[in-house]
Amino acid sequence: MSAAADPALLEHATRTIAVGSKSFAAAARLFDEGTRRSVLMLYAWCRHCDDVVDGQELGFNAVPRQPDDAARQLALLIEQTRRAYAGETMRDPAFAAFQEVAQRHRIAPRYAFDHLAGFAMDVDGARYETIDDTLRYCYHVAGVVGLMMAQIMGARDEAVLDRACDLGLAFQLTNIARDIVEDAEAGRCYLPAAWLREAGIAPHEVAQPRHREALARVAARLVDHAEPYYDSAAAGIAALPTRSAWAIATARNVYRQIGIEVKRRGPHAWDQRVGTSKATKLWLLAKGGVSALGSRLAGLPARRTGLWQRPQAAADEPAAGVPRAAHAAGA
Question: Which of 50, 89, 227, 298 registers the highest number of CB atoms within 10 A of its CB?
């Protein structure tokens, strides 16, 4: 049985997203069967890479690796990705799934290696001085995933891909706001250092309860910063097939609602993990359907100026943080 026909790959991906991202899993049910298979399998690869570098399982129970160990694990992921693009037989289900998706939808190697470069930023202990620095990280770990997802849905126009990237940026800004304390306890901080200074919070004190009021203001600022990216992404839904448009509109609504809830809870946003109830998800699903249908009548307006722009590098330029040799081997 070929990898492309192997139902075990889809079963693996379905289990992965069911545990790793309940928010996206709900929206993914709306895709047509073929698109859903590829979307879930791409997610499974992204989740696997994140778990391997962070020493966690499906996004939970992280046991931070020592820098040398994390670097070795990342090097293995880069090599496996290179081999997947070279057409070698992949025994790891996450990489077998990725290989199928990359071949079927002609996913550019640069996008995959750009994603791995985001994990390199974590391994290298990158620091983020400005919001543009934070957005650069968001591009690598989420914006480029939006690009790959959009290609699965048939998008090739650069303007549409920009909107897909914007949605990934918005998702990650929301994730950062929701997970500030959890990340800080793991020794990571993705907030702009300039914002923390303005709030009177030392980077090594982010998780301390005495800073909750000030931290809530920083989180609200981050949630507000995501809004124009959510708006830009909404405009791009018009270019997607109807069922894909419904799924993406729903995912956009669900993630945006998480940010709204983080902001609403203020200093208590990190008392427990913020999510959305089943009832709220159903309401946002219906709202997404209305948006998707309405988008059929709309064109794609010009992208708002002032938004962070994804890299437009030459195809043979290696992704930041990824060894040139590894990128060249996969290109």
Answer: 50
Q: Cβ distance 171 to 266 under 8 Å? A: no
Inter-residue contact 249 to 288 (CB < 8 Å): yes
80: containing domain = 3-330
Q: What is the mean pLDDT of the chain?
A: 88
Contact 57, 50 (CB under 8 A): no
Q: Exposed e or buried b for every residue in 92-115, given b needs 16+ CB within 10 A? A: ebbbbbbbbbbeebebbbbbbbbb
Number of Cβ within a 10 Å radius of residue 83 = 16
Rounded CA separation 137/190 (Å)? 8
**In CATH, what number is assigned to the domain containing residue 55?**
1.10.600.10
Q: How far apart are CA 132 and CA 261, in angstroms?
A: 24
Are 70 and 123 spatial neighbours (Cβ–Cβ below 8 Å)? Answer: yes
CB 274 within 8 A of CB 265: yes
The pLDDT tens digits of the residues spanning 57-109 come to 654 455 566 778 889 999 999 999 999 999 999 999 999 999 999 999 999 99
CA distance 74 to 123: 8
Return the closest-CA partner of residue 267 out of 228, 213, 303, 307. Answer: 213
124 token code pair: 């290298």
pTM over 0.85: yes
pLDDT at residue 20 in the model: 62
